[in-house]
Design goal:
By secondary structure, the chain is of the alpha/beta class. The chain has helices at about 35-45, 90-100, 115-120, 125-145, 210-230, 255-265, 275-280, 285-295, 325-335, 355-375, and strands at about 25-30, 50, 105-110, 150, 160-165, 170-175, 190, 190-195, 230-235, 245, 250, 270-275, 300-305, 305-310, 315-320, 340-345. The protein has a single domain (about 30-375), classed as Divalent-metal-dependent TIM barrel enzymes (TIM Barrel). Strand 14 (about 305-310) and strand 15 (about 315-320) form a beta hairpin. The protein binds manganese (II) ion.
Length: about 375
């Protein structure tokens, strides 16, 4: 900890709080990892904070098994959750209590379950009820004392990626090798199946303007609730960032589209789940300008950090210290703009050993922790 002496004009203002320029190191955990072993693992890697997923991406799926980030084939990740079981205050409080007992803070929950909001994305018949679902969830998150809720306003979701030995030393990683245009079948949204008994056929394509209107409806409904609940809504960009995936438009597939999202509903609670890897895969501008622009505006709720080689529609995820992004430069920009939130490794390549996910995350976290110390922010 660095305590700066109050001098000059600030010395007369007793309540001026000095920015310490420190960022926080966190780890993202999937639903099946919410246990004491994984909390200890996070602490051992130097983390103080967690970002957790409550959606089970791996339920009843043949093509998508736990052990790595969810990938799956064109049938998606798996079966969405119970449409009637919203995450309760008791459930959220109990998870937070266990995390706190392990010596960690719960910074954010990442992602709504498609079962709870598919018609908000698709503009379907259950939209009004599902907007109420989302309000209930945000109120519960606020009551539980969890400061951030991350979401990804995307019809097709994280789809169209492939796995391969793309990273250094033939480590298995994820990438994209050309676009996925196959239309989304009925009953699917956000790369998950919410209705196994849906009629055959495909979901009609929305236009880009329709999608932005749907986001507007979502923000108009949710931001006032988030303000009252003390929860920051944080938007993830489209991964992979192409204008269309599965014949559906995408929202934030270029860096400047983040600005459109922010300006659509100005509020301190309308913020970004800032994914550096996804921004680096975009074809316009460059990742350093995007980091500078949005961190200067104080719009970063938390940061996903990873590295990548190439851009859409052909790119490969890499280890944090290879690939196109100068991660240390990104962190220096964050420090200069006084970002004090949580950084988590986003995805990491799977390492050749008995615990490929753990080794990948520990490697990324060790790099990040060293980088924070070098730049004086950790
Ligand atoms: Mn991300």
């Amino acid at each position: 900890m660095v305590f700066k002496k109050l001098t000059g004009e600030f010395a007369t203002h007793a309540f001026v709080s000095y920015s310490q320029g420190l960022m926080k190191l966190g780890l993202g955990l999937y639903r099946h990892q919410l246990d004491r072993e994984h909390y200890r693992f996070a602490r051992q890697c130097g983390c103080t904070h967690l970002v957790i997923h409550l959606v089970d991406y791996f339920r009843s799926s043949r093509s998508n098994q736990p052990g790595d980030q969810p990938v799956g084939d064109d049938t998606g990740w798996g079966l969405a959750g119970d449409p009637d079981a919203l995450w309760t205050l008791e459930e959220l409080t109990s998870i937070k209590r266990e995390i706190n007992a392990a010596g960690l803070e719960l910074e954010a929950i990442e992602n709504f379950d498609p079962a709870h909001w598919h018609d908000v994305l698709l503009d379907g018949p259950r939209k009004a009820k599902q907007l109420e679902n989302l309000k209930t969830i945000i109120r519960n998150v606020g009551r539980a004392g969890i400061p951030i809720f991350g979401y990804n306003f995307s019809i097709a979701g994280v789809a169209g990626r492939v796995k391969g030995r793309f990273a250094r030393g033939e480590a298995e990683a994820v990438g994209m090798d050309g676009p996925l245009d196959k239309p989304l079948p009925n009953g699917m949204a956000w790369n998950m199946v919410y209705d196994r008994n849906a009629a055959p056929g495909t979901i009609p394509s929305a236009t880009s303007e329709e999608l932005w209107q749907r986001l507007g409806v979502f923000l108009d409904a949710l931001i006032p609730v988030a303000e009252e609940a003390g929860v920051t809504l944080a938007a993830h960009p489209d991964d992979p960032p192409l204008p269309m995936v599965r014949a559906q438009p995408r929202l934030v597939y270029q860096p400047q589209l983040y600005q459109r999202l922010i300006d659509l509903k100005p509020s301190p609670r309308n913020a970004l789940e800032f994914c550096v890897g996804t921004l680096a895969e975009m074809t316009d501008g460059n990742v350093y300008d995007a980091v500078d622009d949005y961190s200067r505006q104080k719009k970063l709720a938390y940061v996903h950090l990873r590295n990548v080689r190439g851009k859409v529609p052909c790119y490969k995820e890499t280890f944090i210290d290879e690939g196109d992004v100068d991660v240390l430069r990104v962190m220096r920009i964050l420090k200069r703009n006084q970002f004090e939130g949580v950084l988590i490794p986003d995805h990491a390549p799977q390492m050749s050993c008995a615990a490929p996910w753990h080794a990948g995350m520990a490697y990324a976290l060790g790099y990040m922790r060293a980088a924070l110390q070098i730049i004086g922010a950790g």
